[in-house]
Amino acid sequence: MRNNIVHIGAGELTYEIRAIVDIADKLKKLGIKTNMENIGDPIAKGEKIPAWMKKIVADLAMKDCSYGYCATKGVLETREFLAEMTNRRGKAHITAEDIIFFNGLGDAIQKVYGFLRREARVIGPSPTYSTHSSAEAAHAGQRPVSYRLDPDNNWYPDMDDLRLSIKYNPAIVAILIINPDNPTGAVYPERILKEIVAIAKEFDLFIIADEIYHNIVYNGQSTKPISDLIGDVPAIAMKGISKEVPWPGSRCGWVEVYNADKDPMFDLYVKSILNSKMVEVCSTTLPQKAIPQLLSHPEYPNYLRERVTRYERFSNIAYERLKSVPGIKVNRTNGAFYMSVVFKEGVLNDRQTLPIISEEVRELVAGLLCQPGISHDKRFVYSLLASTGICTVPISSFCTAEQGFRVTLLERDEAEFTRVFDTLAENITAYLNS
């Protein structure tokens, strides 16, 4: 091209969670039976949508109004319903005007970061969900700015690291919290959230709180929505129905804005996000119309409770299978449906292997492993996939220096789930001893 047409941040847009699917597909063609534990899609793992939920969606699909545009911020009745839920549950008071709908939280994330001034940075956790770190880095055209989550302390934030990072980087304007966390499955107690809010207030920052998994908490843990603790600090909470209902294919998420009236600059920033949505006209209408009926249906609490109870049971099966394996650090998952496992420092090298029966598969994996700069944990993930068919995601792809992998708790068959984690335990040991 006569001029460079590539955005300065294009190189930061990576999403290993789906990228590894291409490799798994190639292995399938070579006869490898795979267990896709890479992506948080309950439907792909066999979650059965109940008939009452399907009927709500089917009835709405028969109404002409579901096929038209809605208000730019979203369906008014749905925003009123959600505002009432937030006000009833917590200390914050919002109205329908403080809620904006997007085509999934991926859309919201792109706009929340994309409409910041380029020099303005958002500090996020490390490890962190790739969509956040990629969007923030792409907006700035630089590597993400992060604070450490500590695998030796339940994956809780290293508060000293967070404070010092903010103190000595005046470009930071906001703190990202993911609670419950993806990829670690950590659930942050109220004291940690209060401390983060206090830091934001001290340094005149706003908070972005990704709460997509807020109602998937178990193992006796508890947390609070940021709306309960935010006080007068400006904040954006991100919510949706893709994980909780679950309806990931709806691409329906929303943000709740708190305290825009407390800071004129923050208010102008939020208006710029809304204006960008106005250019698109609106988000998809039908799933928005379904939300009040789905979340208020008398069967919904029991349906959600059954799923959460299953995740709790499976989190404990996974923890029991892996906790005593030498060479790794494992924390019990207490929220969402992921587990992050990290290798202890110094146990990985570039000579370790797992047995691969097929010559064709060996050749494919050899080509992958000889890529320049490939991380040690990606070597393990590729070897594991080729040897056992278990598809995980290298933890280094979640914007962290840690080496390990993320795996889901979404398999519905308990016997198969147990087999997968027994296989993981055996192959971690075999790999480290190879």
What does this structure look like?
- The protein has 434 residues and is an alpha/beta fold.
- It folds into 2 domains: 170 residues, Aspartate Aminotransferase, domain 1, CATH 3.90.1150; 229 residues, 3-Layer(aba) Sandwich (Aspartate Aminotransferase, domain 2).
- Strands 2-9-8-7-6-3-4-5 form an 8-stranded mixed sheet, with helices on both faces. A 4-stranded antiparallel sheet has the order 10-11-14-13. The chain has a two-stranded parallel sheet with strand order 1-12.
- A hairpin with a 7-residue loop joins strand 10 and strand 11.
- Helix 11 runs parallel beside helix 14.
Low-confidence stretches are 8-15
Integer tally of domains: 2
> How far from one another are the termini?
49 Å
What is the N-to-C order of secondary-structure elements (H for helix, E for strand)? HEHHEHEHEEHEHEHEEHHHEEHHEEEH
- The number of distinct helices, counting runs of at least 4 residues, comes to 14
CATH architecture of the largest domain: 3-Layer(aba) Sandwich
Q: How would you name the CATH homologous superfamily of the largest domain? A: Type I PLP-dependent aspartate aminotransferase-like (Major domain)
Main sheet: strand order: 2-9-8-7-6-3-4-5
Q: What overall form do the CA principal axes indicate?
A: globular
> What structural class do you assign from the helix and strand content?
alpha/beta
* Major pleated sheet: 8 strands, mixed
Short characterization:
The protein is of the alpha/beta class and 434 residues long. It has 2 domains: 10-47 and 301-432, Aspartate Aminotransferase, domain 1 (Alpha-Beta Complex), CATH 3.90.1150.10; 67-295, 3-Layer(aba) Sandwich (Aspartate Aminotransferase, domain 2), CATH 3.40.640.
